[in-house]
Amino acid sequence: MTDYTRIDAYVLRLVEESTPERTMWNLEKLREGKKGTWNYIDGCMLTALMEMTRITGDERYADFAEQVTDFYVQEDGSILTLEPDKANLDDINEGRVLFEMYRRTGKEKYRLAADVLYQQLQVQPRTYEGSFWHKAIYPNQVWLDGIYMAQPFYALYNVNFGSGDCTDTVSQILTVQKRMRDSEKGLYFHGYDASKTAFWADPETGCSRNFWLRSLGWFAVAMADLMEILPDGDQKEKLVPVFRGLMESMRTYADAETGMYWQVPDRPGEEGNYLETSGSAMMAYAMLKGSRLSILDESYAVLGEKTFNGIMNRYLTFTENGLNLGGICLVAGLGPENNRRRDGSYEYYISEPVVENDAKGVAPFVLAYTEVKRRGQEGSNE
Length: 382
Fold this sequence. Notes:
With 382 residues, the chain is mainly alpha-helical. Helix content is 53%, strand content 6%. The chain has helices at 5-16, 27-32, 40-56, 59-72, 96-105, 108-122, 144-160, 167-180, 213-229, 234-251, 277-292, 298-315, 346-349, 359-381, and strands at residues 141-143, 191-193, 261-262, 275-276, 316-319, 322-325, 328-329, 354-355.
C-alpha cells in the first residue's frame, strides 16, 4: 500500500502558507510577482480543498477556501478582478464553491455572486448551434477546456437556484460530441471553430489538428462532475454514454507501465512526446469518480489508482522544502490570430514548457488524491 501521509502534510502546508492574494499553488502569479485574481486555477484547487475537508473532516481546508471566496466576493455579490466584458469561460469555474459557501454560511453575498456569474453566461456569445464561445477573443470557438470551466457551474446553478432544467448544458456537450469527436480513435480534438475560418481549423470540419491531453482531461473531469451534479433522468442519461465512451477510448492510450498518458495521447513514444502529469491526474480522477458513482465499472477505478501511483512514482519528489510535482505542461492553446505559433500541430504541443509545481498540475493531482483517499476509506469500511 502506498504511503500517502506526506501528501496530506504537503496539501496542508500549501494552505497554511497561502493567502487569498497569494496562493502557493499558483506558480505563474508567484513567479511574476502578481497579486491573485478570481481565476480557474484557484477555483480548481478550492474545489479540491472542499473535497479534502469532506473526506478527512479537517475544516482547515474548507476554512481557507472560505477565506479566498470571502475576500473576492463583495457584499453586493460583485467579484473583485472579474472582467465580464472579456466573456471568458475560465472565470466561471471558481464560482463552483459559491453554492457550498452559501450553504455553510448563509451569507447572501454568495448567492448574489452566483447570480452575477450566471448572468454572464446568459449573455455569453454563442455559436450558431448554441455553444458558448470560449472567450470574446476567440469568436465562434469551442474548446474542450471551456466545458469544464462553465458547465458544472451552470448545472449547479440550475439545480440549486433555478428550475433544475439542465438541457442547455446537455445540448452543448452533445454538440461537442457531434463536432469534435474523432470517430476512429474516440478522442476529442482540442478546439472547434464553428465558422471554420480560424487559421488552425480544418476548413471542412472546423476542428484543430491534434488531440491534447489536458484538454481531454478537462472534458473528462467535467463529465465526471456532471454525473454527480445532474438530477437522475433523461438529460443525465443522454450524457452517460458520452462519458463512458470517452473513458473507454482513453484507457486504450494508457501507458502500460505507469498508467499515465502522453501529452499528445495518440502518438506515444514519438520524439518529443512525454508522459504528462496534469492530464493524467485528470483522467485518474475521472475514472475513480466515475467508478465510485457506478457509471463506470471497477476496472476503471483500478486503472485510475494505477495512474495516480504512476504520477507519484515518476514525477513526485520529496525535499526538505516539501513536495515537487513535475511533468506539467505549463500552458497550451489555439491562436489567437496574432499568435500563430499556437497552431495545434504536434510540434506545437510538445514545444510548450514543462514545469514543476504549477497549479494546473497540482490541483488535479489533489483532486485525484481525494478520490484515492475516498476509495481507501470505503475499502477499509467493507
